[in-house]
Design brief:
Length: 131
């Protein structure tokens, strides 16, 4: 297990997600202030690969440098705010989710069904009165 590579991949994924959130923030602002530009950004974002935040920003710079700068600024602000809380929140969420998955699994493996022939015959043998 290469922890440094996992951390690098996680950072790249988080950066792309923050790019997406920044684009949504800018898109919301543009809907109120410049609807035609909002429509353009929506169409641009739908046809370009926003899953890769860096590639998205590069392509946006070629088409509309002002929007690219605006999205980068919002992304940076989001990163500053989010990373303050993120380590503890991620750990807590994973622990909570793991506990829930374990609970559900335990419930599934401890439940039995009377439609199971082995269980049904065991109960029918024990429930008959002795003569």
């Amino acid at each position: 297990m290469d922890i440094k590579q996992i951390a690098k991949d996680t950072a790249k994924t988080l950066s792309s997600y923050l790019t997406y959130q920044a684009m949504r923030t800018v898109l919301g602002q543009l809907h109120e202030t410049n609807p035609p530009l909002a429509l353009w950004l929506h169409q641009f974002s739908a046809t370009n690969r926003i899953q890769n935040g860096e590639l998205y920003i590069e392509e946006l710079f070629r088409e509309n440098p002002d929007l690219a700068l605006r999205i980068m600024t919002i992304r940076e602000l989001l990163a500053e705010e989010v990373t303050e809380y993120l380590p503890e929140m991620v750990k807590m969420e994973i622990q909570r989710a793991n506990m829930e998955h374990r609970r559900q699994h335990l419930e599934r493996i401890t439940q039995f069904s009377l439609s199971d022939p082995a269980i049904e015959s065991e109960f029918s043998d024990n429930s008959e009165p002795e003569n």
